[in-house]
Design a protein that fits this description.
Length: 309
């Protein structure tokens, strides 16, 4: 590298003293470096006289290539420096659809304020696709629902999870429903309700089914009507087709402006889900992601959730 740097300095200045001053090298060392490069390449790069320095034909051809190599090495060193620095470069974050609209404002505000050098790239996908992308290296970090009490490192794919918070499910009903506005509902209430669900593939669908099973509902939930997203789901409820379960973080966006909807809350302990971050076990950015998880917990304290410290 020092030989290439010496040669390009001479090629730019066509003067040994000026070239040596430019790169902070003594003139004899500069001359020796260029001579060593000529010997290594087996070509004469410079024509030296007592009055001037000229590039040989080979030197003319190789000077631009030498500059390109030096620029590429400089870029490589800059990238390495950025890789060593936390919260710089790209972070490909996968988020499940039942979190994205409700948590991303907090996430994006935190990144903008705390990590301005971080290039956050968001991908909204269902859980199975996110996990595949994480294991394959397409994604770096996931924001998704994780089973409460699940081990932090699990699965053959080597996925590590870090919990952020727990949030309750709330029953959403049509405005005139007999349960509208009720508090302290026993879970057993779910046994006799027409429960609307998200489509297959959404983790919230399975969580709702698990809640129903815990409530003693054994006949299953009819799937004649389902929805691809929570916004459609609440419109079906508003239309009188049934009731549904929503995570509490979604209520402000999905229900507060719709006079045809009402909510009812369960008795403690209410059915809930846990939201956390998932990463590849052994990722080189684990310490960085641990700091991000800590900062996310603090940023999410104003939300209607229970932070998992």
């Amino acid at each position: 590298m020092s030989q290439l740097r010496a040669f390009t300095a001479v090629a730019d200045n066509l003067h040994f003293r000026e070239a040596a001053a430019e790169i902070g090298m003594s003139q004899p060392a500069l001359s020796g470096a260029v001579a060593a490069l000529e010997e290594s390449l087996g070509v004469r790069l410079l024509e030296r006289t007592t009055r001037r320095v000229l590039l040989s034909p080979a030197g003319e051809r190789l000077a631009s290539r030498a500059r390109t190599v030096l620029d590429a090495v400089e870029e490589l060193l800059e990238e390495a420096e950025a890789a060593r620095a936390p919260f710089t470069g790209a972070l490909r974050l996968g988020v499940i659809p039942t979190c994205a609209p409700y948590l991303l404002p907090t996430v994006l505000r935190l990144v903008h304020d705390r990590y301005p050098a971080l290039d956050l790239q968001v991908h909204e996908e269902q859980t199975a696709s996110l996990l595949d992308g994480l294991v394959a290296g397409r994604l770096d970090l996931l924001l998704l629902a994780v089973p409460p009490g699940a081990p932090q490192t699990a699965g053959a794919g080597g996925v590590e999870t870090v919990p952020l918070f727990d949030e309750d499910f709330v029953l959403v009903t049509p405005g005139g429903h007999e349960l509208a506005g009720r508090d302290g509902l026993p879970r057993e209430t779910l046994r006799g309700l027409e429960l609307l669900l998200l489509d297959e593939g959404h983790c919230l669908r399975q969580q709702a089914l698990d809640v129903c099973r815990e409530a003693g509902r054994t006949e299953g939930v009819p799937a004649t009507t389902s929805a691809a997203g929570l916004s459609t789901l609440v419109q079906l409820v508003a239309g009188g087709l049934g009731v549904t379960l929503l995570p509490r973080t979604s209520l402000h966006v999905e229900t507060e402006r719709n006079e045809l909807l009402a909510t009812a809350c369960f008795a403690d302990p209410a059915p809930s889900r846990r939201i956390g971050l998932a990463m590849r076990a052994g990722t080189a950015r684990r310490d960085e992601f641990a700091v991000l998880a800590k900062d996310l917990r603090e940023a999410m304290r104003p939300l209607p959730v229970r932070i998992v410290d």
